[in-house]
Amino acid sequence: MLLQLFWTYLKVGTFTLGGGYAMLPLIQREVVDYRRWIDETEFLNMIALAQAAPGLIAVNSAIFIGYQVGARHVPTRWQGSRWVGLYPHLAVAAAVLGAVLPSFVIILAIAMVFSAYSDMPAIEAVMKGVRPAVVALIAAPLLRMTLKANSPKPFREGGVLLLSWSLASALLIWLAGVSPVYIIVVTIVLALAVTALGERRRSKQ
Amino acid sequence: MIYLQLFLSFFKIGLFGFGGGLAILSLIQHEVLAYGWMSEKEFVDIVAISQVTPGPIGINCATYVGYTATQSVWGSVLATGAMILPSLVIMLVLCKVYLVLSTRFADNAYFQNTLRYLRFAVLGLIAAAALLLITPATFIDRWSIVLFGAVFVLTILPQLIHGERPTAKRVLATLSHPILLIILAGIAGYLIYR
Predict the structure, then answer these.
(1) In the prediction, which pLDDT does B18 show?
(2) Chain A environment of B56 (Cβ under 8 Å)
(3) B113: which of A51, A173, B147, B185 lies 20 to 30 Å off by Cα?
(4) Chain A nearest-CA residue for B132
(5) Is residue A113 a contact partner of residue A21, using CB atoms and an 8 Å limit?
């Protein structure tokens, strides 16, 4: 079972290009349709949890699946043993290692080679063309993400205010050099405070 | 000493990295530039390499930064491990709560609102990441602006076309794939600057 988990996530990690969200359909096919480790509803719960927790969605999903599978499919020789509680954690380790290993190895190889050859004029010429393209690739998804952030209630329930907070945080990081960490912390505190106020108002009515 | 800094930085990135790869990029950028582990130019190069290689962008960046900062494999191991550690602890706690209660977090107002607010903050983080990378090192001449414009338009075009023309949409969607765009930009760069 540990090997199966490792192998499944190794496959997912090797064949997804472009990060976490691109991974989700592949994970669904492997884990829900093929291995039948969890069902459709649990998969949706997993996405919700993986997005809510900090960190990479791909890694968070590997932790969730590893834990669920490990907790449910304890091998017979582990059952009744003193170390039975350890098994789900081993499953988590196997899944996470599988998810991370392919990128780790490939990038490490590139880092070693690229740092030796980055001074070559041909490579530098290629990178001069690539750099502005990368900036565009970071900026372009903002349009769709802005619409999505507003999606259930377009520009209502403080949507405009929240968008000005997006703008303010962009300016604070860009011009004032504020760490994004502070933006995240302030956002969470703000959200909890506003919710608490709203709940209090509702209970008074 | 550099190992301790690397660990603390990437632990922080893992702990506050909400909203997926692009948002985490903003945190990595801040730490990397603050410590002077690499220049803006090098950082953009790493993002480009992360986009065209398999796996989550965050892992790719951590591994690469870890190696360049220390010139050792252990730097990569440490940075990647430190970034995963907070997820590991928090997700395991959430999994245990989930297994015991089977509660639907999704219905909780605090949970819902925090996620919604974070989505907006993440917009600001990503915008700042892009703005910070518009420097004389990355935008060297008019061609840079042309390439930026071309990639930007090709990426948002498929989102603007609605229904009606499935073939046109599919062609555009294929053309707007980030990996293809980076390769094309690289070829253009080679032809212009060699």
Answers:
(1) 86
(2) 19-20, 23, 56-59, 99, 103
(3) A173
(4) A174
(5) no
Contact residues on chain B for A99, CB-CB shorter than 8 A: 56
Annotate B111-128 with b (16+ C-beta within 10 A) or e (fewer): bebbbbbbbbbbbbbbbb
Mutate to test the interface with A, among B33, B113, B139 (most CBs of A within 10 A): B113
Amino acid at position A20, single letter:
G
ipTM of the complex: 0.87
Picking from A112, A138, A172, the nearest residue to B126 by CB comes out as A138
Contact A137 B155 (CB under 8 A): yes
Candidates B97, B100, B120: best to mutate against A (most CBs of A within 10 A) is B120
Q: Is A101 exposed, middle or buried (0-12, 13-18, 19+ CB in 10 A)?
A: middle
Q: How far apart are CA B24 and CA A148, in angstroms?
A: 19
Instruction: Kindly state the tokens that stand for B40.
Output: 């803006």
Q: Is B53 helix (H, G, I), strand (E, B) or coil?
A: coil
Ranges of each domain in chain A? 2-115, 142-204
| The predicted structure's pLDDT at residue A186 | 95
Rounded distance, CA B192 to CA B185, Å?
10
Helix (H, G, I), strand (E, B) or coil at A18: coil
Please, what is the average pLDDT of chain A? Answer: 86
Q: Do residues B84 and B66 lie in contact, with contact meaning Cβ atoms separated by under 8 Å? A: no
Does the pLDDT value for residue A18 go beyond 90? no
Q: Mutate one of A11, A131, A156 to test the B interface: name it (highest B CB count within 10 A).
A: A131
CA distance A50 to A131: 31
Q: Least CB-CB distance to B14: which of A49, A54, A192? A: A54
The strand pairing partners of A183, in sequence order, are none
- Whether A56 sits inside 8 A of B148 (CB atoms) is no
The 10s digit of each residue's pLDDT in A105-157 is 999 999 888 878 878 889 899 999 999 999 998 898 888 888 877 776 655 66
Q: Is the pLDDT of residue A21 over 80?
A: no
